# Entry
Amino acid sequence: MTEVIRVAVSGQPNCGKSTMFNAITGSTARVGNYPGITVDRLEGSCRMGDCAFKLVDLPGTYSLSAYSMEEVVARDVIVDERPDVAINMMDATALERSLYLAVQLIEIGVPIVLGLNMMDEVKKKGIHIDTEKLSKLLKIPVVECVARYGKGKEQLMKAVKALVEKTKGKWKPLRISYGPDLDPAVDEISRMIEEAQFMTNRYDARWLAVKYLEKDREVIAAGKKAGPLGPELEKHVDELSERLEETKGTYPEAIIADYRYGFINSILNQGVVSRDNDLRVDALDKADRVLTHAFLGPLIMLSAMFALFYVTFNIGAYPQGWVEDGFGFLADVGTRFIPEGMVQSLVVSGIIEGVGAVLSFTPLILIMFSMLVFLEDLGYMARVAYMLDRVFKIFGLHGASVMPLIISGGLPGGCAVPGVMAARTLRSPRERLATIFTAPFMICGAKTTAYVMLIAAFFPTHPTVAMFSVVMAAWFFVLVVSKLLRSTVIRGPSTPFVMELPPYRLPTVRSVAIHTWGRVWQYIKKAGTVILCISILMWVLMTFPQLPSDRIQQFESARKTAKIEVGEQAERQGLSFATREEALQKRFSIIADDQGEATLRYSAAGRLGDALESITQYAGFPWQANIALIGAFAAKEVFVSTLSTAYSMGDVDADDAQSLSEKIAADSGWTMPGVIAIMVFMLLYAPCMVTVVVMIKESSWRWTLFAVFGSMAFAFIMALVVYQVGKLFY
Amino acid sequence: MPMSMRRMQRNQRGRICSVRAHGEIGRRIRDMGLVPGTEFAVVGRAP
# Structure
């Protein structure tokens, strides 16, 4: 008979928990979701003989307090889902700190197996750990592992199986003494809880008592709902805390933490660990001295970022070209095989163009993300956050804001979708909201297409300088707006930057590939779904209502007239057939442009653009830009494709984008101050639709609406100012 | 001679006497292992 053993895998950040999880579950791992919470749930399975295991990877947390969503999730999985066994992975090079989480799990009572990971580094550092002794003292099975190489995974699962057979589903919470000040209170409170059977269906009474003393937010909130004993216990604890503060100058939570560490050390000091030198110092720590040097650090950082930029765009251009060619081919096929008319237009101009433009960015995104992921796994991004924290704090952001901002396009070509998701790492809501609000200002890949096109049109002589200025402007606005937000709407002290700088570690190809693919897949999904729908919608808005037949007639007669006139001219001047055809084609092309423009102007989208022009003229936007900007709300790539449709052209291809640029440059509706105003507007106005969806998930409806309308208003004001000021100079 | 860690310079070592911070920051500091009695060295200050 096969039994399914349910295992939860826990561990502190950077301990190799996920590496071991992947080693055990292999390709069966899938990412899921905890309902209502933005924490990923990773599940997988494995078999050993006739035994099947189902594993859940808990979020990495340093402890099981109630201060962060990850900790609450990890705790709730253990308490509510009651796995048969928990595996706690530990960084064996930091045994004392690692045991802090382990001890809290043992206090809950779940049967647990400890995985001592990074044993290879332990040996390298000359540290000696008596694993057997540790296991005996804790009364818990301990397995030595090197997760990078998959070492220890069979032993872990064997230990899990043995533990299940031994404990048979019984949970035995560990009881630690918390000293003479607290032990009586713990006993008293657990007695009160036992008598009233207060939440004892979910938790162990003594564990609850300790949590109340720690002023655990989750437990207190649950207690309020569970009965009158809840508030009574709170009062009891408050009185005790006040007394302690007066007499000893400390408070229960601190005492409890101290005693937990005392318990840990009492075990470690019994000959479990012996080491050469006390403090952890690596050869690589010396590298940090250079990399975070006051002067060299930022210099190295900027060069690294610039290198990223350079590689992405120069190497990425090749595969990007291939994807574009691929779509160009599809477009040709479409034009050839689908009879001319609505369907062909929809499929070719609407779908293939729209989706193609977006997907052509995938290679760029792939390259850039893989490099960023590499730097992150290496541990370098943590140093970047550390260096930038002080500067960012001035603007109300946090060192950890740097990743979301760079991913969103701090260097052109990112995407705000994974960027906003990356803001989850920010623990304080204030900095997180500020980061989420400003991340869309960054120059994502979509905006880059628009800027490249506009720069080619209006700044053809200094493209690099122009692009660089746009990047600088983006960062400028992010910092300034963030400061504005943090001084007004989301006021409050900044979160202190307390983070463990992970040791430098050479990332494995596999881990980089998995992380990168995760992010790129989000981007592709966006293209396949939202942009497809929007492309179709935009096409509809730009095609209907169609020009009424009398207007079409006017263009037909214009063509007839052109034919006659050119014919007469050819006869008079004795022109060759070729020259005559050429002249005729020129006339036709002008008529076609006019007709195209009229058709567009007549459509729903065109009328909207016209209607808005009464307002936007003060910022110098021509009506075609209005349509493009509306479309770009759905997905910023649409800006260029809409404009190219508006100017009656087919493809948007690197070459054709040039010609689009030429056409726009020639159109007098676009003035230099107006162009700059449009560039400013595009930088700042509402995030694209997909980003909005993600923002709602990561923050709230209210904040997202505020971000959308607030940034739109701000963008317009800026554009207006820029235009009016610009007019004075031009 | 007790002083605030913030005032320490690079390469200075010390031993923690007390952690006065309350709430989350206190928790974070303790979770990292910085509890009374722990010895530490300052290896850098952000530029």
Remarks:
- Residues 114 and 142 of chain A are 5 Å apart (CA to CA).
- The two ends of chain A are 84 Å apart (CA to CA).
